[in-house]
Amino acid sequence: LSILIIMFTVFGSVLIQTSFQTALEREKEATLEEAAMFRYTVLSSVASMSDTYQLDEKIITDVVKTIDENIGNAEDTFIFYNESAVVLYQKGSHINALWETRPSTDELVWQLVEKEGVHYLETLVQVVLENKVYYLEKNRSVQPVYDNRGNLLHQYRMAVGVLFAVASVLAALLAYGFTA
């Protein structure tokens, strides 16, 4: 009976951790895909305008803002920087944990960040527009994934506690039955 409880505890913990890693990986892939799509949308929008307009930083920033307002996720933080780290457009709170790892062209860097007890997936990608370097930063909360894991662990601990209590009572009854 003790071996069964130990196996239940170990395999249940592994199952919860695997479920958490899978959900986090799914969020990461979706966020990276959205950041890449956003980058390509900005590149194609600016490229289509460059033949018609003399593009300056303000017009490029307006294009980025318009794209974010139309296809961006309202809950995500989005920041558009120039090469000197001057914020040209910002929606949401600023994390900026990836700035030191500024990516090269076509490279998308990411990391998990915890800020004030909330977990975020931060992405940063470089964009070259009109021969100037810019950076697109996107931060998405992955706290629901962490909260789900916490809820599963709590429920699992309760189940293990109940199983342990039932096993203890059964063991006591069996011991009493054999000694009587």
Could you characterize the architecture of this molecule?
The chain has 180 residues and is of the alpha+beta class. The chain contains 3 helices and 5 strands, in the order H-H-E-E-E-E-E-H. A 5-stranded antiparallel beta sheet has the order 2-1-5-4-3, covered by helices on one side. Strand 4 and strand 5 form a beta hairpin. The radius of gyration is 25 Å and the shape is rod-shaped. The protein starts with a helix and ends with a helix.
Structural category: alpha+beta
Q: What is the N-to-C succession of helices and strands? A: HHEEEEEH
Oligomer: single chain
Strand sequence of the main sheet, in spatial order? Answer: 2-1-5-4-3
Give the beta-strand count: 5
Low-confidence segments, given as residue ranges, are none
Mean pLDDT: 86
Q: How many DSSP H or I helices? A: 3
DSSP strand content:
15-25%
Largest sheet report: 5 strands, antiparallel
